[in-house]
Amino acid sequence: MRAAGVLVFAAAARAWAPARPAPRPRAVSLNVATEDPATVADEARVTKKSSLRAAPVLTDARDMVQVFEDFEADEASVVQDDGEASQSPLGYATDAVTGALFDLLHFGDASGIEDSSKNLRVLWARALLDDAGELEDKVAHNLLPKLTRDVAKWDALKPAARFAEFVTSRTKFIDAAVDKFLAAVENSGAGKPQIVLLGAGFDTRAMRYAERIRDIDGDIYELDLPHVCKGKSGLWDTWVAEHGSSSYKKPSYIPYDLNDAGDPDKATPLDILTSAGFSKERPTLFCSEAVLFYVDDLPKRRLFQDLLLASTTSPDSAVVLTDNLKPLLPSPFTHEARAFFEDSNFDLLKHSARWGGAVHYAFAARRDSQIYDQLVVDRQDTTVSYLPILSHGAAALQKKPTFENAWYAVAFSKQLERQDGDDFDELGYTPYATRLFGEPMVIYRDATGQINAVADACPHRSAPMSMGRVGDDGNLRCFYHGWAFGKDGVRADVDQFKPDGTLKKNACSLKQFAAEEVDGIVYVWRGPLLEADAGKLPQKVPDATPTYPVDTILDYKVGFEYIVENNLDSVHLFHLHDGSIPPIAALGMRRSNTDNLLMKAFNDDVGPGHVGKLRGALKPNKLVRFDAPNIVRHGGVSGFHEEFHIVPIAPKRTRVLLRQHLPKGPILTTVTGFPGVPKFLEVLVNNWNYHIGLEDYSVMQGQAHMIDDLGAPRINKAGKGDDLIFKFYNWYNKALENDGGQPYFARWTGDNEYNRVIVGDGTARDWSDIDDDELRGTVGIKEDFHAVHPVANYPPANPDGGGGYLKKWNAQVALFRALGIPLGFNPKDE
Description:
By secondary structure, this protein is α+β, with helices and mostly antiparallel strands. It is built from 23 helices and 28 strands. The strands form 7 sheets. A 7-stranded mixed beta sheet has the order 3-2-1-4-5-7-6, sandwiched between helices. Strands 20-26-25-24-23-22-21 form a 7-stranded antiparallel beta sheet.
């Protein structure tokens, strides 16, 4: 199990368990060994009757009831007492440094502001973000001291704006909810709106919405500490005098310590609001922006119980927050957030979480309110996804299993650029060539920057376009006779049309595949060109934790299904890998800890998966999910997650495009800004991934031999976590049945359309016997020909690949030994 954390990116090198495909195409068998001869005979008859029939249900692998009960029992037994809000030593140090800085910047300031730490830090950040074009907030600059406010416009400080992304995202989220709420009130005729801001500090929202609040006769109430309320009042008066209008309604600044909500001897926040003019009969929006971090657990509970979600507060209320909800909602999962709000008759309209649930972005409304219907008119997609990337395409394939009509990642965008060795080629650089289920294709950027995916066969005389070059003009030129093809694969070196507008005889184009680029990953559609649906591409959950991606490429000489299976398996991380790289060891992934791994199955709106935790842990810290047809996603509650795009190149060839997302906070943002650090981080993580891959590769090759060559059952007796393996192969078998057999490319139809014929019930061939050498291909003087692209030059298939993996790994081994860090398996000297 990969617990997520900032270091876990290393452990995330998961294995992609290889194995050789069966010599004959067939549905993967999940036969269970049994002592009942009648059962054995019956299973034999089923196999003989139809090689594509779905495998029989493996009951103990499917259910795993006791394992799931153990998970839930342990979860219920772990109780966290209400505690006090606290801050890390780094937080205290930051407050001290910024406090001293703001003392200087506000020296002689006549506004009377006493606070000089967090609240002012956000105000200055807003001014800086506005000047950098990241956030529109002209008010913030006007609230700063006249003598020093232009510091926020210094060009030297603009790079610092990227550290304040949290301020930008939470502002936009809450502003969108405020706009939605005010529009709903107006359209429904529910009455005069009220907005209650909890502990907003020196926020500018009241000023920015002053004109609109005046026009609809609304009111704003702000609950905050006494000295902050005094400073806010002075800032409002100054702003109105210099930039506003006397017609604006001044907010009610109500001195109140939110931690007093937990004291039964003190007035409740509702009583305090009511005494200031708040009405329970008016539509109300409660806003909480990054303030509950500083509120103890007990008063936090009572704030929700007695105010924010209380049935007695307002019948027409809504809540928007970008805040910490622990211990009320410790996990980041949307389904749990939805249940939390539904307990109080609120509907969760929009939700995401950051940093493993440390911050929730949530907008919810009372179901039976007058404004509810208006708020849900164009509600955003609230697809339940346990991981921060969702896919409507994967969801559709779960309902109707098939390998057709789906997007497949085939390359990282950087692989389409000029590579080493092409720098001095006068014809241009080599295009990226690959196969998808054995069908040859070439991918290149044309002069407009558009990605083109085309068949690897020239329409002239079918010479491989992969032997050609992409010139400076963006055209892909055939290596044989020089025919050039540009945008959409259309021939570009001759005029296509006669003077009368008809096509010339030599007008032609390459067969085209639909291709899209998303976040630096290139996807190709396997299906009719005109039916390609960009809405089925993977997409990030809105407002998810910003991340820093690290990419790794891994090659395997086994079928893709074995690699999917291996990445869905959490238990082997403890036993097989046994702390073999430092991050895995640090996370307790040792053989001795295997019994403490607890798992529970889930099915979110994308696909099936597991939630995992260690016995005694407060919350889950491991997620695994299968996104049909070929993606495995891992994640954890810290915001770390990784995606394994397991690309079926050919029957015995698979390439994995692994992207690991490291949660991007101020520290990682700072460190990766130094020259050389991103490359060092990439090499380090790549080598860890290669190492884990090699450990899996050896075992899985042996497993594949036993299963495919010698007929051993895939799952004989089920173990912990095998229910998810069963679900994958159940899907896999249904896809084979729906598609009429193996999805691998057999041949083109021989006509000028280059339509494909799949293997079906035939034998899938890997074509590796065409090459003189498995790495170099068929050797030529000017250009080599490779029967199967891409060449398997990355580990684990090629341990010496990946920029000299073994040499770099051995250097790391020497360093770890010198530092006294425990080592696991070393492929060269152990």
